[in-house]
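@channel sequence for tomorrow's demo:
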Amino acid sequence: MRLWRELNPTLRGFFILALIAGAITAASGERALFALFVLMRIAFLLALVWFAYTLWRNHRSEINVWPLRARAVFYGAALLLVADLLVYFFRHVAGPDALAFFLVLGGCGYALWRVWRDQHTYS
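structure tokens (generated this afternoon):
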């Protein structure tokens, strides 16, 4: 046990992962692992939704005093971002679709950042 405690933490983590992978392979648990993967994707998506909702709830009174155009761009980019993420999570995009996903993701992120920055610049 002393050797295990003194072992490099990264190497110890790799050993643990190798043991888990070996146990899953030996037990033919690919289906269980796939089900766990799907559940983790859904949990991650729900965590993103919760985080976005919390940010919106904390700043909604501030966003409501923005000009109509800024609000429309902000909420439009947010909705397009959500639609883009839903397509990515449930359609498994690859190739040109993956490129389009990242381009839309970057464009929405830039629009959200730009509107936020413009509304918080007091000059």
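heads up for whoever presents: The chain is about 85% helix and 0% strand.
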